[in-house]
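Tip: read the tokens left to right.
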């Protein structure tokens, strides 16, 4: 699934190609993409409007159109935006036709598994309400401080990996960057979020920001479906420190990297550099923990 660095990569590539252009035609080929609106309703609300700005909130691309109209687009697991592809891919769910002084240009959404979405938001109040209900702070926001993280995690017994993946707590971080950040911080993914020390939160904050910035610099990670506008691959997968490196030696201590399940996701850690939390409770609790880590 595209995470913050992948979506930011697409935004940076696409913004110069769409900002200032007019949406001449909008064709939605999959009714699931536009829910709860019917495809014709969403298309009619967008067609004819000028694109004023292409932004990003967490993992969402945010199209700001004239008339205080917004489209919040999420690529989800297998979605890709392709600019004037030849030939067109076989799973096109939405097609945009844009016009400027040089002519018309085509943008398509390719999504084999049909998880991507586009949500119409009318006015800034609807925009603010939409994201307030779904997203916490982004790690690249100045307000993403150690104290903010400690307050958000206070009393939480869930693993810190789950805390990082919760978009209402930390916007934009997914499985790849959570693993990379936790390794950088030396924090085990199964540590209860509410039990991290101030020093651990300081290292984790730094690790999250560093991992995201490295991903942006590498123009994203292409380990599944993520592609650039022209179909090219990102390169961050070549720089992974820990993610998807089970069985390989840790780049710090040489101990074998292990794979486990945390927050329902395949998770990678070095249990030399990231000390596993001690089990608490009785035999039944220990049995539950053994199941949870696979």
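Filled-in amino acids:
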């Amino acid at each position: 699934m595209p995470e913050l660095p992948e979506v930011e990569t697409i935004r940076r590539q696409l913004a110069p190609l769409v900002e200032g252009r007019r949406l001449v035609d909008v064709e939605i080929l999959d009714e699931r993409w536009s829910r709860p609106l019917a495809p014709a309703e969403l298309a009619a609300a967008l067609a004819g409007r000028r694109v004023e700005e292409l932004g990003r909130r967490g993992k969402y691309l945010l199209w700001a159109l004239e008339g205080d109209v917004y489209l919040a687009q999420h690529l989800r697991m297998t979605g890709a935006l392709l600019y004037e592809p030849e030939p067109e891919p076989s799973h096109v769910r939405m097609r945009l036709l844009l016009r400027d002084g040089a002519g018309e240009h085509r943008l398509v959404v390719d999504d084999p598994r049909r998880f991507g979405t586009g949500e119409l938001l009318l006015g800034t109040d609807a925009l603010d309400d939409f994201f307030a209900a779904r997203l916490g702070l982004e790690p690249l926001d100045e307000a993403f401080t150690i104290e903010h993280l400690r307050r958000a995690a206070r009393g939480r017994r869930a693993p810190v990996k789950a805390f990082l993946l919760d978009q209402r707590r930390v916007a934009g971080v997914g499985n790849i960057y959570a693993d990379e950040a936790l390794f950088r911080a030396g924090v085990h993914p199964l540590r209860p979020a509410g039990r991290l020390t101030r020093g651990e939160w300081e290292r984790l904050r730094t690790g999250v920001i560093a991992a995201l910035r490295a991903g942006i610099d590498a123009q994203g990670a292409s380990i599944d479906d993520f592609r650039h506008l022209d179909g090219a691959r990102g390169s961050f997968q070549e720089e992974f420190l820990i993610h998807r490196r089970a069985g390989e030696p840790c780049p710090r201590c040489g101990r074998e990297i292990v794979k486990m399940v945390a927050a329902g996701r395949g998770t990678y850690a070095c249990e030399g550099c990231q000390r596993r939390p001690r089990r608490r409770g009785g035999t039944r609790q220990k049995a539950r923990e053994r199941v949870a880590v696979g």
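The first strand starts at residue 22 and ends at 28. The mean pLDDT is 94.
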